[in-house]
Specification:
Its EC number is 2.8.3.-. This is CoA transferase. InterPro entries: CoA-transferase_III_domain, CoA-Trfase_fam_III, CoA-Trfase_III_dom3_sf, CoA-Trfase_III_dom_1_sf. It holds the Pfam family CoA_transf_3. The chain is α/β, with parallel strands linked by helices and 822 residues long. Helices cover 34% and strands 12% of the residues. The strands form six sheets. A seven-stranded mixed beta sheet has the order 3-2-1-4-5-6-24, sandwiched between helices. A seven-stranded mixed beta sheet has the order 12-18-17-16-13-14-15, covered by helices on one side. A three-stranded antiparallel beta sheet has the order 7-8-9, sandwiched between helices. It is globular.
Length: 822
């Protein structure tokens, strides 16, 4: 459904951008299913190949709801809408020939291991590439297809530990074990990234007879979504981003009639919170080392005040004070929230009738297809045996460009994490990206590194800004001035894509909404990334990542069951960025085919509601309210963190390993690695249901065993036996992982102000390149002012005048007149 703010630019429904593209889905699990769901909604014909018993997702329910033979689980029905299903028995030669015919006529394959089909030697990525070199083959694996860890067992839980994502942002109470982000969120994010990477590869290989291997590592997607550039931070500033865990204050708090979430991330928000709870005197008590420490110190008084108020009253007051706030969503209440109802976001599954999320972004003209019904097992086998797909004859002998976005010019009006992460991908793959700030209001990530303002050029020293903006050009422009707005309009005329993530009123107040942009450039693609959408009652609410997490269900499943949930404080932003990227790429392909511009409305919360889909689906389909379970999870038993014998690197008692047993064979391997102790020989423990019932007993014994060993010893023993295990890494130690080094995930980036530091790249290795991703460091504030303004025909005298007037500048304006450009 198009937004009310998205004018329809076509008289009839537009052909989807990926129409004509045939995708063979050889994956299983959430990541591959979500990747191909996004491709199907973009117009691709997705043919899901299943073994005779069907994809395991057909029998999956996170709550354990019984699924009758012949029926499908609700999550499968959501993820498989609009796809086709064929069945192949790989023990039968004729079926292998049938699959070869499917591959010969297809354009894309999405592959992950886990079924008899994908694990057949003839259907390995290497063999598919050898027999069908025209195909884009996207693989989704824990560690990637190469490197020393490529064959090591892993689960999403152990990958969160290896990534530093469990320990990274200090999630959880300091007197308890840290907690992972619940809801298998890493699998969903990996699927969204795999979709964007697949579209990228398809765009540059279309019309040729040259395919590509797109090798995605889930570990690397976890690093990008659950940690905040910790390696760059540590190497540039000589200290970790955070050294201890803490609970956010207020965070998720108990009110008189339920839970409410409040954020306090800036000095002004702290001052406003003090006033709201009736303690103005706290504002004048001197400057504490940090807002966090001040809030933690005053937590008893703050929580006491909140406990006496209703949720509605707290939210009304917090909104009036401009304090970020939101309701705490879960599978039972989220579809009833006024904002989601006003935007008519949730829909009814077209086959099975349960409630499910709508699409993660909206476009005008409407570019997306569906949702259609999910296929029954093998429903389309006969059709494809009779009429396998046929590829179009290649119309070009050109070599695909290692930098596929080389011809794309992007105006980047974004700040903080969500928007810049979207445009950063384009910059790393060749686009000219112009990142616009103002001297009065620099990008927020320049301000959150904890660098004292007394340091020379302090605003240039943020490793977080650096990690999100390499390869971009930097322009400062105060578009609250008439001349600033005129120059911004001139820039829009020369750009293919405009991306912004301000609150909706900002561009509308200066007269640069989508109709105005179209008047300047009719074929422009405008990507708007508001927190809650361009309309609805929450339209103007501040949209920090944690508020998005609270209002979508991401928070609900994170934390210990006997405590209030805790905010992930991470995934809300990059998840929004990768979904906006998917939408942007579809819009670029649409413009290539039709010459039309597109408005994309990529609301952060609606991207988050898609990756938390399982909660509302389980409640609607089965009446089951999914609950947080600490570090336990629905797919493995045992699954938990266990404290090790050694202190952590800061001298604390906070060193852990993660263990997750997903199969009975892995349980047998664990028992053997432990020396087959008597407690583990109970026959009840030989099956998953029994292990789940006896999880406390298993935890007791594993805790005792791990408590006498170092993390390295535990990993060596269990991983060598084939048990998924991981050290719970401090995130700045990511660079020490041999697997990441072997894949070149980090690249050293020099900087004119900061020390050289290693920066993360993309979680994909493209066989057609590029071989490196960071062409140049992130821009200094206003570094390219003169170059870009000259390109608009502005003379040197006027540029000097603009500097003197503060319209452009090279230093934050509140520290004096902006410095002159070089």
């Amino acid at each position: 459904m198009a937004s009310k703010h998205a004018p329809d630019t076509s008289a009839s429904r537009t052909e989807p951008p990926l129409s004509g593209v045939v995708v063979i889905d050889l994956s299983t699990g959430i990541a591959g299913a979500y990747c191909t769901k996004l491709l199907a909604e973009g117009g691709a014909k997705v043919v899901k190949v299943e073994p005779p018993e069907g994809d395991p997702l057909r029998q999956w329910s996170a709550s354990g709801a019984g699924i009758a033979d012949g029926d499908d689980g609700a999550l499968f029905a959501f993820l498989s809408g609009t796809k086709d299903s064929v069945v192949a028995d790989v023990t039968v030669a004729d079926d292998l020939d049938f699959l070869a015919a499917l591959l010969a006529g297809a354009d894309v394959v999405v592959w992950s291991s886990g079924t008899s089909v994908s694990d057949h030697p003839r259907l390995s990525p290497t063999e598919i590439r050898r027999e069908h070199p025209h195909l884009v083959v996207t693989t989704i694996t824990p560690f990637g297809l190469d490197g020393p860890w490529r064959d090591r067992p892993a689960t999403e839980f152990t990958l969160q530990a290896w990534s530093g994502g469990i320990m990274g942002l200090g999630r959880g109470a300091p007197d308890r074990a840290p907690v992972h982000v619940g809801g298998r969120i890493g699998e969903w994010f990996a699927g969204a990234y795999a979709s964007a990477a697949t579209i990228t590869s398809r765009m540059r290989t279309a019309g040729t007879d040259i395919g590509e291997l797109v090798d995605l590592a889930i570990l690397e997607t976890q690093i990008l979504s659950l940690t905040y550039f910790p390696v760059s931070f540590h190497e540039a500033l000589g200290r970790p981003f955070r050294t201890q865990r803490r609970l956010s204050v207020p965070g998720v708090a108990s009110a008189a009639d339920g839970m409410v979430a409040l954020g306090c991330g800036t000095a002004q928000q702290w001052f406003d919170l003090c006033a709201m709870v009736g303690h103005d005197e706290w504002i004048d008590e001197g400057i504490a080392p940090s807002i966090t420490e001040r809030a933690t110190e005053k937590a008893p008084e703050i929580n006491g005040w909140l406990a006496e108020q209703t949720v509605a009253d707290i939210r009304d007051l917090a909104t009036a004070f401009r304090i970020p706030n939101g309701p705490v969503a879960n599978g039972e209440n989220v579809a009833r929230m006024d904002h989601h109802r006003a935007r008519e976001f949730f829909t009814t599954n077209p086959r099975d009738g349960f409630t499910q999320p709508g699409r993660p972004f909206r476009t005008s003209p409407e570019l997306l297809r569906g949702p259609g019904p999910a296929p029954r097992l093998g429903e389309h086998t006969g059709h494809y045996r009779a009429e396998p797909p046929r590829r179009a004859v290649p119309d070009s002998g050109r070599a695909p460009d290692p930098l596929p976005f080389r011809a794309l010019r992007v105006l980047d009006l974004t700040t903080f994490w969500a928007g810049p992460s979207c445009t950063h991908y384009l910059a790393m793959l060749g686009a000219e990206v112009i990142h616009v700030e103002s001297a009065a209001r620099p990008d927020g990530t320049r301000l959150i590194a904890g660098v004292p303002v007394t340091e020379d050029l302090w605003w240039e020293k943020s490793p977080i800004f650096s990690g999100l903006n390499t390869g971009k050009k930097g322009l400062t422009l105060d578009f609250s001035t008439e001349r600033g707005r005129d120059l911004l309009a001139e820039l829009i005329r020369g750009c293919d894509v405009i991306v912004e993530n301000y609150t909706p009123r900002v561009l509308e107040q200066i007269g640069l909404d989508y109709p105005a942009v179209r008047a300047l450039r009719p074929d422009a693609i405008m990507v708007r990334m508001p927190g809650f959408g361009l309309d609805g009652p929450w339209r103007e609410n501040p949209a920090f990542a944690y508020v998005i997490e609270d209002t979508s269900g991401l928070t609900w499943l994170t934390g210990h069951p006997d405590m209030n949930p805790v905010e992930p404080y991470s995934i809300g932003d990059p998840n929004a960025g990768v979904h906006a990227l998917n939408a942007l790429l579809l819009a670029v392909e649409h413009r290539r085919r039709t010459g039309e511009g597109v408005l994309v409305e990529a609301a952060m919360v609606e991207a988050a509601l898609n990756v938390t889909a399982e909660q509302v689906i389980e409640y609607s389909a089965y009446g089951a309210l999914l609950q947080r379970a600490g570090n336990r999870g629905p797919t493995a038993a045992p699954q938990n963190l266990y404290r090790t014998a050694e202190p952590d690197e800061f001298g604390g008692d906070d060193s852990w390993v993660a263990v997750a047993v997903e199969t009975d064979a892995q349980w047998s391997a664990l028992c053997a690695a432990l020396g087959d102790p008597a407690w583990a020989m109970d026959t009840e423990l030989a099956v998953a249901a029994g292990r789940r019932r006896q999880h406390d007993l298993i935890d007791k014994h594993l805790s005792a065993w791990c408590g006498t060993r170092t993390a390295a010893e535990i990993v060596e023993t269990l991983w060598g036996a084939g048990v998924p295990v991981a050290e719970v890494m401090q995130p700045h130690r990511q660079v020490e992982l041999a697997q990441l080094e072997s894949r070149g995930f980090f690249e050293a980036v020099g900087h004119p102000v900061n020390p050289t530091a290693r920066h993360s790249t993309v979680p994909v290795r493209f066989s057609l390149g590029p071989n490196s991703f960071h062409a140049r460091p992130a821009p200094l504030l206003g570094e390219h002012n003169r170059e870009l303004l000259r390109g608009l025909g502005v003379g040197e005298d006027e540029i000097d005048a603009l500097e003197a007037q503060g319209v452009i500048g090279n230093a934050p304006a509140r520290h004096g007149r902006p410095a002159a450009s070089k």
